[in-house]
Design goal:
single chain, about 230 residues, alpha/beta, six-stranded parallel beta sheet, two-stranded antiparallel ribbon, 8 strands, about 15% strand, globular
Length: about 230
């Protein structure tokens, strides 16, 4: 599977999701969504984590960076869709969910089971924990439940730090999901399909959250840096 480094971060460009699933199957690895903002603001610790796992282009900025570096077939892979396809791919294996509030995680589990009654959700918990005792209890639960897939929806860079800590103790395929549980249960509305297909999902989010405007202006730097070859 082809990949290129953008601002020192290796980003993979699968031809399709099946290639990505095949590449990560049976590995102790994390699937990491990257976009222009994450690639622009990455620090040394996050860069190391990304490069020891599998990052995929979850934003048009990352796609632009890959294409600029010669991978013309690169395309956007939406994490809020990928995790559901991954569940179907591993439909006969155990799944563990971490993230959101108690209400959100319970609603997520209920909706998943409505959509896929045979889905093997062996454990779940909210995304609010930090002390060693809670981490140890979670690791113990993973060892008992033996999931093949562990989804962590806590936002970046917190979810990456959690995944890295869990991954050292319990091998599995991990995936950071940000706010995907909220999107899945309808707490957060995703952009209309025509905007998604037009690569304008960022504009919809900006309209919904105008405070993002300053961050959007900074992202112009990302495109400039990619264009001039600095990244």
């Amino acid at each position: 599977m082809e990949s290129k480094k953008i601002n020192g971060c290796r980003v993979y460009a699968p031809n399709n999701q099946d290639e990505l699933f095949s590449f990560t199957r049976n590995k102790n690895v994390a699937l990491i969504a990257v976009n222009a903002e994450k690639l622009l603001n990455v620090d040394t610790k996050l860069r190391s984590f990304i490069n020891s796992n599998v990052a995929y282009p979850d934003g048009i900025g990352a796609v632009y960076g890959l294409r600029k570096k010669g991978i013309k077939h690169a395309y956007k892979i939406a994490g809020c869709e990928l995790w559901l396809n991954l569940i179907y791919e591993y439909r006969d294996e155990n799944i563990y969910l971490i993230g959101g509030t108690d209400r959100t995680i319970k609603a997520t589990v209920e909706k998943l089971l409505d959509l896929h009654p045979s889905c093997k959700i062996v454990g779940y918990r909210n995304g609010f924990f930090s002390n060693k005792k809670e981490y140890d209890a979670l690791i113990d639960d993973l060892e008992v439940c033996e999931p093949s897939l562990v989804f962590v929806a806590m936002g970046s860079p917190l979810q990456e730090a959690v995944i890295e800590r869990l991954k050292e103790k319990y091998p599995a395929i991990y995936m950071g999901l940000g706010g995907s549980f909220d999107v899945f249960v309808g707490s957060i509305k995703r952009a209309p399909t025509f905007l998604v297909k037009s690569n304008l999902e960022w504009l919809y989010r900006l309209i919904q959250e105008p405070w993002r405007i300053r961050r959007q202006f900074r992202l112009i730097l990302f495109y400039v840096y990619v264009w001039i070859g600095r990244f």
